[in-house]
Write a structure and sequence with these properties.
With about 240 residues, this protein is an alpha+beta fold. About 40% of the residues lie in helices and about 20% in strands. It has helices at about 20-30, 40-50, 60-70, 90-110, 115-145, 170-180, 215-225, and strands spanning about 155-165, 185-195, 200-210, 230-240. The protein starts with 17 loop residues before the first helix and ends with a strand.
Length: about 240
C-alpha cells in the first residue's frame, strides 16, 4: 500500500539555529531530497542556507549534506527553478519560528517566568514530533515483522566512476568495483557513458541496506582503486 502525503510548504525556519536544523533533520528522516526523488534546485537553496556542515547530532541532515556536497557545491546544475528558502519544508517549522517571538511579550508581564522558556518549548515540540514519527515507523516495522515480513530500509544508488584517461582498462575498472563486497551491498546493472576525447565513465547501480552501507563506505572503497579510478560521483540516491 502506497501512502501519498501532501506537505504544505512553509519553510524550515532559520537553518543556522538548532530549531531550524531539528526541523530539517525530522523532515529528512523520511525524505532523500527536499523535493521529489532526485536532486533539484530546492536542495541547492537549502544547502546554501546551512552556511556550513551541520553538527553530527543531526544525522539525517549530515547524510543529506554530504550527499549534496559530493556534486560540488560551487557548480550545482540541478533541474528546476530556485525559490525562496521559506518555500520549502513542512508547515510546522515556520509556524513554530513565528510563534516564539509572539510569546515574548507575555514573558515580560511576569518576572517569575523564564524568558528563555519559549525556545525550550519549541525544541520540545519538535523533538516530540520527531519521536512520534519514529514511533510510527517502529510500529509499522514491528507489524510487518509479526507477519514475517521484516521491513529493512534500503536505498537505490547510481554512481559515476571516472577513469584517469582514455587508456584506462574499463573492464578491469568495473571488475575492481564489483569486487567490493559488504553485508547489505548488492551491485546491479552498469553501462559505459562517453565523457569526451575518447574517455568513458562507468555508471553503475547498487542497492544498499541503509543501516549497513552508506555513501561514505562506497566512496572510500571505490576511490581506493587508484590504478583505475580518478573520482566517484553520486548520480541518484533514492529510498526503496
Amino acid at each position: 500500500t502506497l501512502l501519498h502525503c501532501t506537505w504544505i510548504n512553509m519553510g524550515f525556519g532559520d537553518l543556522t539555529s538548532d530549531a531550524g536544523l531539528a526541523a530539517l533533520d525530522a523532515f529528512l528522516l523520511a525524505h532523500s531530497y527536499i523535493e521529489g526523488y532526485t536532486p533539484s534546485k530546492a536542495d541547492s537553496v537549502v544547502f546554501a542556507a546551512l552556511k556550513s556542515a551541520p553538527a553530527a547530532k543531526y544525522k539525517n541532515v549530515t547524510r543529506w549534506y554530504r550527499h549534496i556536497a559530493s556534486y560540488n557545491a560551487e557548480n550545482f546544475s540541478f533541474p528546476g527553478a530556485a525559490q525562496s528558502l521559506d518555500s520549502y519544508g513542512p508547515a510546522g517549522a515556520a509556524a513554530a519560528a513565528a510563534a516564539a517571538p509572539a510569546a515574548a511579550p507575555a514573558a515580560e508581564e511576569d518576572d517569575d517566568i523564564d524568558l528563555f522558556g519559549d525556545d525550550d518549548e519549541d525544541d520540545q515540540e519538535k523533538e516530540k514530533l520527531k519521536q512520534q514519527r519514529l514511533a510510527e515507523y517502529e510500529a509499522k516495522k514491528a507489524k510487518k515483522a509479526a507477519k514475517g515480513d521484516v521491513l529493512i530500509a534500503k536505498s537505490n544508488i547510481i554512481l559515476d566512476v571516472k577513469p584517469w584517461d582514455d587508456e584506462t582498462d574499463m573492464v578491469k575498472l568495473e571488475e575492481a568495483v564489483r569486487a567490493i563486497e559488504a553485508d547489505g551491498l548488492l551491485w546491479g546493472a552498469s553501462k559505459l557513458v562517453a565523457v569526451g576525447y575518447g574517455i568513458k565513465k562507468l555508471q553503475i547501480c547498487c542497492v544498499v541496506e541503509d543501516d549497513k552501507v552508506g555513501t561514505d563506505f562506497l566512496e572510500e572503497h571505490i576511490t581506493a582503486i587508484e590504478d583505475y579510478v580518478q573520482s566517484m560521483d553520486i548520480v541518484a540516491f533514492n529510498k526503496i
